[in-house]
Write a structure and sequence with these properties.
The protein is mainly alpha-helical and 340 residues long. It has one domain. The chain has 13 helices and no strands. The two termini are 33 Å apart.
Length: 340
């Protein structure tokens, strides 16, 4: 069995588990109450989409900053926003194919904007890394606010704290693996041990790629900090989106409560990244944390459904933008494209 099919089967299995969890969440909720909340939303839903789009712009700006040879002008932020819209839409529309949107992003950057594949893929990894690093302070603030909630069970707080420590350690390890070039160093040592020429060449290529990452971390500390800060604001806008959602559902909450909800939901989403689309896990997280804060898990299910609706709108827009703006040819990897 090829690695591709093995990946697809694993993701199908995790997707099935997620669907099972979703069924449990929906069966446990008062669906008539969920429906009542959702009927109150109306055209205010546009505000949720707007908040998310703003976060997307900041994320695109942070991504652009990882490519030091490109100008930081607004037109380039807009271009990267379009590329990211398309790439993330492909990622979500092809959940069983892994991170299918990343090659699409690299292909568009190369074919449309002349960015070499090496630089393009390095920028994608750097953007992902700074994105999750920016999540840590967001979660820390969320946990601090959670501790101030007197009605939340201590067991829930302990579970959230444990998850925060584990996730932060994982993110730190992800960064250090890149910064210290641990993949190429350990792999190169193994290749020399086995004296396999093909393996040695592979890890030489990995080392060259890691050099691009280390060069950014080492020689562009200002940009690195700026991208992390932009990512943090991006996560904070997610809390604003939650605040808007609950207002639209007819159950206004404080910004502190919205921050706690979004922090817990993202903690779960990132922690179970292997579940395609976070199906079931996101709904379960909303139900549990909203139930802990308000005593009404059905309200959390309504908020989760509202977010799914927003996701569908954004994914649909990205799928339309891709062929329409860039063309199908630009979205496929070009074997003869620039590699640098």
């Amino acid at each position: 069995m090829s690695d591709k099919w093995r990946t697809i089967l694993i993701r199908l299995a995790t997707f099935g588990v997620g669907l099972g969890l979703l069924a449990v969440v929906l069966a446990s909720a008062d669906l008539s109450q969920v429906s009542h909340y959702l009927t109150q939303v109306g055209w205010g839903f546009v505000l949720m989409v707007a908040a998310y789009k703003l976060a997307f712009v900041l994320d695109s700006w942070a991504w652009l900053m990882t490519l030091r040879n490109l100008p930081g002008k607004l037109i380039w932020v807009f271009r990267f926003w379009m590329v990211r819209m398309v790439g993330e839409a492909v990622n979500n529309a092809t959940p069983f194919a892994g991170m299918g949107g990343e090659p699409v992003k690299a292909a568009i950057l190369n074919r449309v904007y002349g960015v070499g594949y090496g630089d393009g893929y390095a920028s994608i990894v750097l953007a992902r890394t700074t994105f999750v690093i920016g999540l840590i302070p967001f979660l820390l603030i969320g946990f601090a606010l959670l501790l101030l909630e007197p009605d939340v069970d201590n067991g829930f707080k302990w579970a959230a704290g444990t998850g925060l420590v584990a996730l932060s350690a994982g993110i730190l390890a992800f960064f250090l693996i890149q910064r210290l070039k641990l993949t190429s160093r350990t792999g190169g040592w193994f290749a020399r041990l086995t004296t396999r020429v093909g393996l040695a060449k592979f890890f030489d290529a990995v080392a060259a790629f890691e050099d691009r990452l280390v060069d950014f971390y080492k020689h562009a500390p200002g940009r690195f900090v700026a991208t992390v800060l932009l990512s943090f604001v991006n996560w904070a806008l997610g809390a604003l989106e939650v605040w808007i959602a609950f207002y639209l559902l007819g159950y206004p909450i404080s910004m502190a409560e919205a921050w706690v909800i979004e922090a817990v939901v993202q903690l779960v989403r990132v922690g179970v990244f292997f579940v395609p689309l976070a199906i079931g896990t996101q709904e379960g997280a909303f139900a549990v944390v909203v139930g802990a804060l308000t005593g009404n898990p059905s309200l959390g299910v309504a908020a989760a459904i509202l977010r799914r609706c927003r996701e569908i709108v954004v994914i649909g827009a990205g799928l339309i933008m891709g062929p329409l703006i860039f063309g199908k040819r630009a979205m496929t990897h070009a074997p003869g494209g620039r590699s640098s």
